[in-house]
Amino acid sequence: MASITAELLSDFRIDITNGTHTWRADEPVDLGGDNTGPNPYDLLLGSLAACTSITLSMYAKRKNIDITSLSVEYSYDKVHANDCEQCDDSHKGMVDRVTSRIFIDGDFDDETRQRLEQIAQRCPVHKTLEKGIVFDETVFAG
Q1: 139 domain residue, yes or no
Q2: pLDDT tens readout for residues 93-122
């Protein structure tokens, strides 16, 4: 089980730890933060990009696919459901959209490239976000 603790330092500056590593989140100055770290959506996209990169690298290593370079770019925005090509009739109003661009260079054929494209969508973080999450939340106030 993964476990993260976040502590408010000031305004919107947050220190985050998993017990081994510590990193920071913040909001940009124009939103009232000090811009001392990425915002929460940047961290979310970073998690997705890291997971996708690791998943592709593990697969390539296991299958002896020669990857010479790999980079992953994700962007996030909200769009109206009517403008979302992937949305079905159950989506109304605004929907969250993540767009990916994955760049892979190496010595492999088109069939392998297509397989790598499928593998990219199998990273655990991608699958979690795609399926949705059930929250079990408790707030303690003192």
Answers
A1: no
A2: 678 889 999 999 999 999 999 999 999 999
Strand order in the sheet with 5-10: 5-10, 13-17, 22-25
> Residue 38 has which token pair?
């990425």
Could you tell me the two tokens for 105?
A: 């260079």
The token pair at 25 is 């989140």
Instruction: Determine contact, residues 13/24, Cβ cutoff 8 Å.
Output: yes
- Write out pLDDT tens, residues 10-52: 999 999 999 999 999 999 999 999 999 999 999 999 999 999 9
Q: Which domain holds residue 4?
A: 1-38
Domain co-membership, 52 together with 113: yes
Asked, for residue 22, whether it belongs to a domain, the answer is yes
State the residue for tokens 């296991």. Answer: 62
Domains held by the chain: number: 2
